[in-house]
Design goal:
Elements (H helix, E strand, L loop, with lengths): L1 H62 L5 H32 L4 H8 L3 E6 L2 E6 L14 E3 L5 E3 L9 E6 L8 H6 L4 E9 L6 E3 L3 H10 L3 E7 L5 H15 L8 E4 L15 H17 L4 E6 L2 H5 L9 E5 L13 E8 L8 E6 L4
Parallel strand pairs: 5-6, 6-8, 8-9, 9-10, 10-11, 11-12
Antiparallel strand pairs: 1-2, 3-4, 5-13, 6-7, 12-13
């Protein structure tokens, strides 16, 4: 009896111990579950707050003009297209207005490329970047105006610039009344001495050279001279300059002695395929011989002469007589005389005559 009751109590104690352990274990599991649930709730709350914060930040960025990478690329593409469309329209409008105003094709194209010299030749356009290697002239577009006689005048603000009005003549002007020319206000004349034929290359004197140089000098007009060159090598350049020096020896030459370098617009011209190196060599041989003889050398040409035929930088050491008709002057580099029209009128000269403005004191 006592032994049985002791076993019962032992078994009951074991059961109670198991129950307590179970209860503790279950309590721990419940506690862990509760803790995990609380952690999940806290995590979810934190994620929600982070999401709301991010959303709020994105809305703020969006309101302040910030965009995602994709949105930014879309905006860039749209801006490029808009800019391209506006640029194309602007160019078309510019071209249309200039053509409607009577500007020629070359003039219109030049206006679209202000940092380059555009030259039309042989049905093609050539583009030459404007360089600082060559001295630029100092004039603005508004520095020159025509007076009531059709003579170009300097109206800029530089008091050190003194200009003179002149003509250049040849046998094409025929007989000239130089007294009337002087009275008309012409201060200098550059007179053609001769030329070389464009096809056969024969040297010829200008028929009116002596009459012109004597008539101008006797009426107080300072004179210079020029020779229309078609030399194809150094030897021919020396022939031309020697002929010229012999012709002017008896006269007082105040203005420069000039080589006229232009391309003969003919496929049969002997200079048709002349390289720029040869043109430059011809000009230098001529000018150095003039300098050696005690005169002031000068090179005459148009914009094409100093781009396609010669590099302006390679003849930069010599005085320049630029031919460009109309204002403002398109040529950007330094010059000493500007031939600004071939259709000028001067009392004493029949028909049209080239008019010039000189900015250098000779």
């Amino acid at each position: 009896m006592n032994s049985s009751s002791g076993d019962f109590r032992e078994r009951k104690g074991v059961r109670n111990t198991h129950n307590i352990i179970s209860i503790i274990f279950l309590s721990l599991v419940a506690l862990l579950a509760l803790s995990f649930s609380i952690a999940l709730l806290i995590k979810n709350a934190m994620l929600k707050r982070e999401e709301e914060a991010v959303r709020s930040e994105l809305e703020a960025l969006n309101n302040e003009g910030y965009y995602t990478e994709v949105e930014t690329q879309i905006l860039i593409d749209e801006a490029k297209k808009t800019a391209a469309d506006e640029t194309e329209k602007s160019i078309k409008d510019t071209i249309q207005k200039k053509l409607e105003a009577g500007d020629g094709t070359t003039q219109t194209i030049r206006s679209l490329f202000p940092e380059q010299i555009v030259v039309a030749s042989g049905g093609r356009y050539y583009f030459f970047p404007i360089t600082d290697e060559v001295e630029h002239h100092p004039f603005s577009e508004d520095d020159f105006e025509f007076d009531d006689k059709g003579f170009l005048q300097y109206v800029g603000t530089d008091d050190s610039i003194k200009t003179r009005t002149g003509v250049d003549v040849s046998r094409f002007q025929g007989d000239i009344d130089w007294e009337k020319v002087a009275d008309a206000g012409i201060e200098f004349a550059i007179i053609r001495t001769g030329f070389r034929g464009t096809t056969e290359g024969k040297l010829l004197q200008d028929d009116y050279f002596e009459d012109n140089i004597k008539g101008a000098s006797e009426n107080g007009i300072d004179v210079g001279v020029y020779f229309y060159s078609q030399a194809v090598n150094e030897e021919e350049a020396m022939e031309e300059v020697q002929m010229m020096l012999d012709m002017i020896e008896p006269y007082n030459i105040e203005f420069p002695v000039v080589i006229d370098i232009e391309s003969a617009e003919s496929d049969s011209a002997r200079t048709a395929n002349l390289s720029s190196d040869v043109y430059e060599e011809v000009a230098k041989v001529f000018c150095e011989a003039v300098k050696k003889a005690g005169y002031k050398p000068m090179i005459y040409g148009n914009v094409k002469s100093f781009t396609l035929l010669m590099d302006a930088a390679d003849v930069d050491d010599y005085d320049i007589w630029i031919a460009y008709y109309g204002t403002p002057l398109y040529y950007p580099y330094h010059f000493d005389i500007w031939q600004y029209t071939s259709t000028g009128t001067v009392d004493g000269i029949s028909g049209n005559v080239d008019l010039n403005i000189c900015i250098t004191d000779y």
